[in-house]
Specification:
It is built from 6 helices and 6 strands, in the order E-H-E-E-E-H-E-E-H-H-H-H. The protein is of the alpha/beta class and 181 residues long. Strands 2-3-1-4-5-6 form a 6-stranded mixed sheet, with helices on both faces. A hairpin with a 7-residue loop joins strand 2 (32-39) and strand 3 (47-55). Helix 3 (114-120) packs across helix 4 (127-138). It is globular and about 40 Å long.
Length: 181
């Protein structure tokens, strides 16, 4: 098993954190991982992406030209990465940030309305965990208990009171992925 994932959107959407938590959780699952963030100097509001590779075997290079799965949270990222998903791969996108949905017919396309779900939960900061939950439903590359452990280890202790809300967000993402689109 080897899964090559790109998560892309605007800085401030929790892109890098999502990738870090996913990589950490896969490591706790006993898998080999690579986490390679990329962002412009403007960070918040600029574009950001992270490449995560999860494998049963050693990873030879963190540099990728094509991906098994793309999680896309804004139109510029969709424009940049849609054609870099391997045939038979998966594109997951948030309906809020995309004006022109993916058009590929040779990949699985799943819409997740994470921004709307975060608003319903009255927890805007849970947006990225909703998206991560959707990703894990479609591509179960890490155990949910390990995702929560990774979150516990990466989240500052002063924010540990938010762990139950993050668990709810992960579950919400699993529920709403691919309902439409």
């Amino acid at each position: 098993m080897k899964e090559e994932i790109i998560i892309a959107g605007f800085g401030g959407q929790g892109i890098l954190s999502m990738g870090k938590i996913l990589a950490y959780a896969a490591m706790l699952d006993g898998k080999e991982v690579s986490w390679m963030p990329s962002y412009g100097p403007e960070q918040r509001g600029g574009t950001a992406n992270v490449t995560v590779i999860i494998s049963e075997e050693k990873i030879s290079s963190p540099i990728l030209d094509a991906f098994d799965t793309a999680v896309i949270l804004n139109q510029p990222s969709l424009d940049r990465f849609e054609n870099k998903v391997k045939p038979g791969g998966t594109i997951i996108y948030d309906g809020y940030g995309i004006l022109t949905p993916p058009r590929r017919k040779d990949v699985k396309v799943c819409r997740i309305d994470a921004m709307d779900a975060a608003a319903e939960m009255k927890a805007a900061q849970a947006f990225n965990m909703i998206v991560l939950g959707g990703l894990l439903k479609i591509r179960p590359v890490a155990e949910l208990e390990h995702v929560m452990e990774a979150l516990r280890k990466t989240l500052p202790e002063r924010h540990h009171h938010l762990l139950p809300m993050n668990m709810q967000a992960l579950q919400k993402g699993m529920e709403i992925i691919c309902q439409e689109g």
